[in-house]
Amino acid sequence: MPNTEGAQATAPGLFITFEGGDGAGKSTHLQLVAEALRDRGIEAVCLREPGGTIIGEQLRSTVLDPGNYVMVDECELLIYEAARAQLVFQVIKPALQRGAVVLCDRFADSTVAYQCFGRGIPRDIVDRVNEFSCQGVWPDRTILMMTGGDAEMGIGRATNHKHADRLEMAGLEFHERVNGGYLALAAADPARIRLVVSDEPKAATARKVFGQLADLFPWMEGEGCDEAYFKDLVDRRDSLRRG
User: Fold this and answer.
1) Which of 186, 240, 164, 189 is CA-nearest to residue 197?
2) pTM for the complete prediction?
3) Measuring CA to CA, which residue among 195, 199, 173 is closest to residue 182?
4) What are the angstrom distances between the C-alpha of 203 and each of 184, 186, 199, 230?
5) Which domains does the chain have, with CATH numbers?
6) How far is the C-alpha of 132 from the C-alpha of 129, rounded, in Å?
7) Sequence-distant (≥ 6) Cβ neighbours of residue 53 within 8 angstroms
8) Which of 212, 184, 215 is nearest to 198 (CA)?
9) How far is CA 175 from the centre of its chain?
10) In what order do the strands lie in the sheet with 44-48?
11) pLDDT tens digits for 98-131?
12) How many angstroms separate the CA atoms of 123 and 145, rounded?
């Protein structure tokens, strides 16, 4: 694990990441949290990895392109790290310094789960390059979302109505190793990494996600955060997507 002592001493914002296997609902619930924050006048910066910058999106296209099937694991690792280094420097650090809440779909835990547990790259190498690319920034909280089923269920959700990308095509055994890696990370750092199983309707899952953030934002479990609130939040998000 990267050395994060004093990592965000000069950054008054909060950095929250959403992790988990494909199809677990990370993007959906990140957007729901962002919508709730903005309703209360809090700046929420929504990002994804790899991506979030022009360079990062170009690297994303390269690393996820199924046509790049000859890409070796070492190359894959370094592409993810390069995209992260750009994102941290260009977007995450400035946002935290101005007091924003940064919500990121995947971060360094993904690299450990996918490139270490999934691909088999030694953990010490992954930790060292993570530390380098993160530049002293580490999540204040991580929501680990799992489907409640096996890896095949997650891949089925992720590829519904679209073509699979290069990582989604890596095979069931690979994704089972990734899911096992995530669970190992959560067991090793339960204060930061909070597990949420997305085996219920979106509104019910959103309530669980908010519950795991309520120590950071007490209003997330306060008066008004009832069943009707979460249903309205989901309806608004789905309406925006359709629009």
Assistant:
1) 186
2) 0.89
3) 195
4) 27, 24, 11, 5
5) 20-235 (3.40.50.300)
6) 5
7) 83, 86, 87, 90, 91
8) 212
9) 16
10) 44-48, 101-105, 14-19, 141-146, 193-197
11) 999 999 999 999 999 999 999 999 999 999 999 9
12) 22
